[in-house]
Every structure is written in structure tokens, then in C-alpha cells.
């Protein structure tokens, strides 16, 4: 049974663990802000193949997601992530939610179940993509759920990091936080340089398939 409520202590432990894992270094070679974003082709929850290159000429947001993570649930159950998605897509931005959870993980959801969870929470991404092999997540160096990226119309990565400025699993912190995605998109769409282009992502570590 999925637990909707998480203690502050447990949530802090997960955040600390995820951030500590990043700081210690991993085998994941992160895509670099200012450089071309790695292309990919993944299936969405309906089985359609979606390629990043299909959206050249548009701003694209990548959101790493996992409904089993309390940090993801914080942003969906509060309505924050769906609202951020709707705000972005209403301005012509493409939003791709990517789940890199391996099939052997207890957090893995079959495509139909993942789509149903997103629909239940009124999510509004352009597509929900499956990356159970972890190939795309590793190409970007995605480490946590959520982990956010923004790609400009020329295909360059212009933002990488957290969704907002308060690393907690408490929904009460959302109104007090700076939403980095909304801030970055507003600046990018206005043709301005981003005041914040890189931040430390927070959340649960991604349940990648073991290599080899």
C-alpha cells in the first residue's frame, strides 16, 4: 500500500541521501548546461515513439519522475507540478516527463498505471516517457526525482537542477520557494539570459537498472 504521508525526518533523510550520493560522484556523466542536449527516442505510455529532435525550434522541459517518491508526490498532490506544466505548455513549451525506474523496482509502474496516476493528479505534460533501461537518464546524468532540465530551441541545455529552491517533501514549503522552472522559462521566452542556470536537484535517487 502506498503511503501518502511521510515524516519530516524520513523525508530529510532521503533528501540528504540523494544529495550526498550526487556529491560523492557517480558513473553518471551529466549533460552540461550550454552544450547540446543529448537526443533520445523513448516510447510514451501509449507505445508511441517520441524523439527529442522532433521538437527542435521549441523550448523543452524534461522532468524526471517516479510516483513512488514522496518528493514527486509533494509536487503532484499539491497541484504544483501540474500547474507548472500547464503554465509552460500554454506558452508553447514542450514538457516531457521521463520515468527511468527499472522494472525490478517496487516503484515501477506499467505504462497504463503510470498514465492513470498522472491523469488522477491532472498532470499536463506533452508526453510521459518510459526509460526503464535508464539510457536516457544516464545520458543526462539525472540523479533524483524530480530532476529538471530546460532545452532551448537550438537544442542546447540551458537549465539543470531542482524544480524549486526548498529541498523538502513538505507541500507547505511550495509557496515560500522560488519555482526555478517558471523563472527560467519566463526569462528564456523573453530572450533574456537565465539568472539561475544550474542548481542542486533534490529528491529520491533514481531507481536505475544495474549495469552489466
CATH topology: Glutaredoxin
CATH class (first level) name = Alpha Beta
Compressed to H and E, one letter per element, the order equals HEEEHHEHEHEEEHE
What does the overall shape look like? Answer: globular
Q: What low-confidence regions span 5 or more consecutive residues with pLDDT below 50?
A: 1-28
Number of separate domains = 1
**What integer value in Å does the Rg equal?**
16 Å
Number of strands: 9
- Structural class assignment: alpha+beta
Count of alpha and pi helical runs: 6
Q: What portion of residues belong to β-strands?
A: 15-25%
Q: Quick one: CATH superfamily? A: Glutaredoxin
Kindly report the spatial arrangement of strands forming the biggest sheet. 2-1-5-4-3-7-8
Q: Give the CA-CA distance, first to last residue.
A: 31 Å
Overall pLDDT score: 89
Helix coverage percent of residues? 25-40%
User: What is the level-2 CATH architecture name?
Assistant: 3-Layer(aba) Sandwich
The major β-sheet equals: 7 strands, mixed
What would you say this structure looks like, in words?
- This protein is α+β, with helices and mostly antiparallel strands and 212 residues long.
- It has a single domain, classed as Glutaredoxin.
- The chain is 29% helix and 17% strand.
- The protein is built from 6 helices and 9 strands, in the order H-E-E-E-H-H-E-H-E-H-E-E-E-H-E.
- It has helices at 8-24, 70-77, 80-89, 111-120, 135-140, 180-189, and strands at residues 41-44, 49-51, 60-64, 94-99, 127-130, 144-145, 147-151, 157-161, 204-205.
- The strands form 2 sheets. A 7-stranded mixed β-sheet has the order 2-1-5-4-3-7-8, with helices on one face.
- The relative contact order is 0.23.
- The model is unreliable at 1-28 (pLDDT under 50).
